[in-house]
């Protein structure tokens, strides 16, 4: 069946007072996995937005489900109707990370409070109401909150505008982000420029909520709730963060992420096919982590020197951190190859950001990630040489670092794709094992290298913990795939003075 697009189910609402029916609410999903637009009610194949729960169970539809839809006319409106369940899902953290405060455009809109989301609505005795003669504006909206608890089957919350409200809770508890009879695990937002970890879908109903209430008013209800809901282990880590020193990471954007990708060299034999996949995955990751991403492609050695000097000379007072990611060929003594076949050393790049030269980054974490070789060795077992010969046409070394560079000043972290003296490998079709393991189009599935580990664990684990997990995943994946011959063990050098949570 032809479809008009894909959407993710962000929540299920109780339909009227019947216990056997629900209303699924969705956000449209673009081809790159981003959510867009305003929430909408998903209609079933019969064109009705009220579903029987058995229909939802039969189609395995729950919060996070990725479905396809077709826009069909119904009751004079063009409504999105369900066509099929793709069997894939979007993590609730991924959805929340893409939400942006409204005000311009038609993309990922969420509001800081009731007054912003519903300009004609009023709050009285903690209830939100709309005069009957006024049309809801809009009918429903996503509202970001910084405190929320469930009390007597009602959601009591405070918005980022410090509005205190109580809403009837129509949220269904089935699915990963459902509301339970416990305080909601909401992390208080430290900045009104950040979407907090709890977002409520608030809607004005077409029916009065109670005969005892004013008959000239419509009252709002909570139809769905999106929660970045950590498990017990993650909650424990969040509590630990208050007692263990960590870098402040509260600004939006967090800072700059500079990506240098050298893939087309003057000597064509040095070209790095497949590097574009790592670039795309890293860009998506650091935008997801609220960094300002700048990409530079195919730089000569002098261009790389000029670039790091320019970045270091900028004012980073409003930044919490800096990431510099370099993908190229490398060699002994931690050198990076420009597309002109000339080298720049890792130490040269780092030195520009020392406190004496870059005052506005003093005391802030500076992270350098290198997807390059650090020499010309590759460990393998002699009896497996035939397997290597059959594979090497696709899996290539980024070779042309053996002593190993270490930071000589505090607040630096260096991450290398491999240990000093060894190759780093790259798949021409998908990218490198260290960065992402395979091509990412949607963030579905267990991609457990740098990109996915940081995306999945950044809220409960600090950076050095996540890098250890990357090492484990890279090595174990090579063993599972029968590539023990290609021993690529990431290595790290760290002078951070506190824990770095992204």
Automatic annotation (TrEMBL):
* InterPro entries hit by this protein: Caspase-like_dom_sf (IPR029030), Pept_C14 (IPR002398), Pept_C14_caspase (IPR011600), Pept_C14_p10 (IPR002138), Pept_C14_p20 (IPR001309), Pept_C14A (IPR015917)
Superkingdom is: Eukaryota
Where does the record locate the signal sequence feature?
none
Q: Which residues form the Caspase family p20 domain?
A: 253-377
- Caspase family p10 domain residues are 402-502
Task: Provide a GO biological process annotation.
Answer: proteolysis
Database matches in Pfam families? Peptidase_C14
Which GO-annotated molecular functions does the record name?
Answer: cysteine-type endopeptidase activity
Q: Hey, which family's this protein in?
A: Belongs to the peptidase C14A family.
Q: What is this protein called?
A: Uncharacterized protein
């Amino acid at each position: 069946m032809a479809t008009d697009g894909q959407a993710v189910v962000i929540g299920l609402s109780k339909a009227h007072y019947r216990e056997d029916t629900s209303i699924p609410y969705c956000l449209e999903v673009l081809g790159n996995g981003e959510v867009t637009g305003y929430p909408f009610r998903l209609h079933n194949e019969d064109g009705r937005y009220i579903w029987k729960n058995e229909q939802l169970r039969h189609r395995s539809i729950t919060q996070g489900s990725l479905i396809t839809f077709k826009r069909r006319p119904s009751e004079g409106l063009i409504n999105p109707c369900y066509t099929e369940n793709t069997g894939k899902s979007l993590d609730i953290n991924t959805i929340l990370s893409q939400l942006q405060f409204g005000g311009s455009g038609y993309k990922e809109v969420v509001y800081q409070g009731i007054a912003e989301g519903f300009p004609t609505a009023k709050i009285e005795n903690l209830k939100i109401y709309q005069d009957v003669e006024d049309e809801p504006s809009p009918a429903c909206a996503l509202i970001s909150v910084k405190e929320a608890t469930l009390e007597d089957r009602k959601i009591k919350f405070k918005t980022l505008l410090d509005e205190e409200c109580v809403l009837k809770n129509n949220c269904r508890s089935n699915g990963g982000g459902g509301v339970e009879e416990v305080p909601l695990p909401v992390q208080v937002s430290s900045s009104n420029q950040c979407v907090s970890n709890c977002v409520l879908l608030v809607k004005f109903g077409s029916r009065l909520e109670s005969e005892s209430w004013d008959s000239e008013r419509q009252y709002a209800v909570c139809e769905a709730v999106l929660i970045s809901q950590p498990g017990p282990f993650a909650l424990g880590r969040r509590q630990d963060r208050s007692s263990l020193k960590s870098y402040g990471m509260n600004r939006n954007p967090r800072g700059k992420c500079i990506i240098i990708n050298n893939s087309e060299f003057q000597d064509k034999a040095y070209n790095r096919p497949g590097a574009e996949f790592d670039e795309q995955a890293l860009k998506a990751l650091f935008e997801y982590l609220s960094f300002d991403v700048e990409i530079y492609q195919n730089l000569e050695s002098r261009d790389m020197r000029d670039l790091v000097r320019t970045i270091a000379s900028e004012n980073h007072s409003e930044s919490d951190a800096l990431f510099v990611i370099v993908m190229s060929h490398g060699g002994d003594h931690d050198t990076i190859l420009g597309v002109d076949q000339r080298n720049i050393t890792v130490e040269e790049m780092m030195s520009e950001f020392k406190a004496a030269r870059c005052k506005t980054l003093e005391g802030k974490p500076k992270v350098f990630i290198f997807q390059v070789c650090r020499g010309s060795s590759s460990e393998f077992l002699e009896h497996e040489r035939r397997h290597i010969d059959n594979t090497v046409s696709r899996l290539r070394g980024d070779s042309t670092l053996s002593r190993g560079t270490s930071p000589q000043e505090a607040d630096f972290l260096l991450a290398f794709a491999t240990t000093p003296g060894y190759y780093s490998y790259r798949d021409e079709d998908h990218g490198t094992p260290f960065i992402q393991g395979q091509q990412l189009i949607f963030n579905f599935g267990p991609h457990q290298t740098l990109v996915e580990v940081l995306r999945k664990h950044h809220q409960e684990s600090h950076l050095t913990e996540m890098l250890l997990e990357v090492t484990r995943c890279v090595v174990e994946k090579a063993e599972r795939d029968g590539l023990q011959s290609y021993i690529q063990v990431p290595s790290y050098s760290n002078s951070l003075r506190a824990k770095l949570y992204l």
